[in-house]
Amino acid sequence: MLKEFRTLLPFAKKYTSAYLAGLICLLVTDAGELYIPMLIKKAVDTITGGSFEPSALLHLMGIMLAAAAGIGAARFGWRFFIIGSSRRIERDLRERLFSHLLTLSPSYFSTMKTGDLMARATNDMRAVRRASGMALVAFIDGTFLSVAIIIILFSRYGKLALITILPLPFITLIILFAGKLIRKYFKGVQEGFSLLTEGVRETFSGIRVVKAFTRESFFKDTFYKLNENYKDRNMRLVRLWGFFFPLITFISGLSIMLLLVFGGIAVIHKTITAGDFTALISYLTMLRWPVMGMGFTVNMLQRGAASMARINEILDAEPGITSPLSPVPGTPKGSIEIKNLRFTFSGSKKETLSGINLTVPEGETLGILGRTGAGKSTLIRLLPRLIDPPRGTIFIGGTDILDYELSPLRSSIAFVPQDTFLFSASIKENITFSRPEADEREVQNLLKLTTLDRDLTDFPRGWDTEAGERGVTLSGGQKQRIALARALLAESPVIILDDAFSAVDTETEQNILEGFFRLRARRTNIIVSHRVSTLHRCSRIAVLEKGTIIQHGTHEELMRTPGLYREIAILQGETD
Questions:
Q1: Model pTM greater than 0.70?
Q2: DSSP code of 81?
Q3: Which of 48, 85, 258, 559 has the most Cβ atoms closer than 10 angstroms to its Cβ?
Q4: Are 315 and 97 in contact (CB under 8 A)?
């Protein structure tokens, strides 16, 4: 169990001084609590002695008040230092988790559900926080009080102490038995929460499709099942803990019963005083918390270990795409060369790309056309290493792209993917995402180039209008044009457009392309499209079919040659 918490060691070392200060405050609190029964014993013995001065009781009361004030201050201290440190560890661990997720390859996120990742960054973090805070308090507090109380009892009351604590060892056995079950059940609870979170996220992310197909009742039923599943997992844990906690309370209560019987007999026979009896009750009552605290400790540690294991699964995941140990300095520039590229996805037996050979001279525009599934998107995702190509197949400026550091490589390639993504920010913020320091004039020029300027009057707050989650408030064409403006603002040496005009009408597309080619006249561009009208301006055009280039040439050359390009052009009415 404890091995799961290895990840927390660097954070714990960072806050060692705070934990030590909290530990001192905790021990002071416990020492004060141990001292109170002794004062109560003196007060009872003074009263039962037959004759006493009120000043004597007032003196004891003054000491008790001072002790209580000290306990209160020390209790605030350990809460501030220990619980505060656990909060800081939670924050630091969450930051590390998020930073690590940013280093992982896109393929990792295709295997992990967003709702599950969110659950691990929130719900599981809370369990880890409790394990690094209250669990530590319960363990130290319980251990110190148990040892101290047992020493006091045996040193003062001997056989009577032995009789009264006889039931307590059974609690340890129960704790050891229940601990593994708690961890197992709590892990199931966290997994159920992940499923519930992902179900809700997926439903509301696709709310337009849900409503378009009137499937509200289906998703309501699905949510009901996920919610019931989460409840059932929780109830299984609650039933265990609900049996476990009262059982511990019952066993610890047996100690009080034994004290009442045998301690009462001892008082009658004057073996102990009434003050001793009162102190014994106080100490045994105090001993119930350490014994129960061990149960709390095991519960919180097992929950924390289950959650930490889920977090460690992510932290232990290695980035599939990394920078080389000794990268080539500088920003990639020059012509793009693809030499005998063959690529197969992991787990697949069929090649996605086979024998690709292409050269894109610096400053020219390459067009790529092909049927759905021909391998176009895979090819262009290899260039910025969103997928890693085999070594010795793709070069920029004569250098293998695997030898460049990832950051400058990707910064040199602006990318507009098929699935347009916008952040929950304003239109302006989405455009300036690629270069936040861009001035307003540059943004205005791009709004005009992408014809977004004519749509601004339709937005309630112009370019300060919120795009909504994933751009839900915008049309498909508007989202694509914002994504294009974002890529153009980056002013990267290379820009890749992956079917970036599919939701734009032909007239608007031609207006945009005129401005695009004028702006990118001396830079390298790669345009993937199903429309011949989009590609006919390109310097060269490659036609892909089943992962292989079957045609390559200018628009005019391909139109004169029988083949797929000409067939598609005729189907689209492009016969000029």
A1: yes
A2: I
A3: 85
A4: yes
The CA distance from 200 to 190, in Å, is 15
The fold adopted by the segment(s) 9-315 is ABC transporter transmembrane region fold (1.20.1560)
User: How buried is residue 440: exposed, middle or buried, by Cβ count under 10 Å (0-12/13-18/19+)?
Assistant: exposed
238 touches 179 (CB < 8 A): no
d(CA 141, CA 383): 59
Q: Which of the following CATH numbers is that of domain 336-571: 1.10.1040.10, 3.40.50.300, 3.90.79.10, 3.20.20.70?
A: 3.40.50.300
Domain ranges of the chain: 9-315, 336-571
Instruction: State how far the Cα of 17 lies from the Cα of 234, in Å rounded to an integer.
Output: 37
The helix/strand count (H/E) of the chain reads as 22, 10
Q: What is the CA radius of gyration of the chain?
A: 36
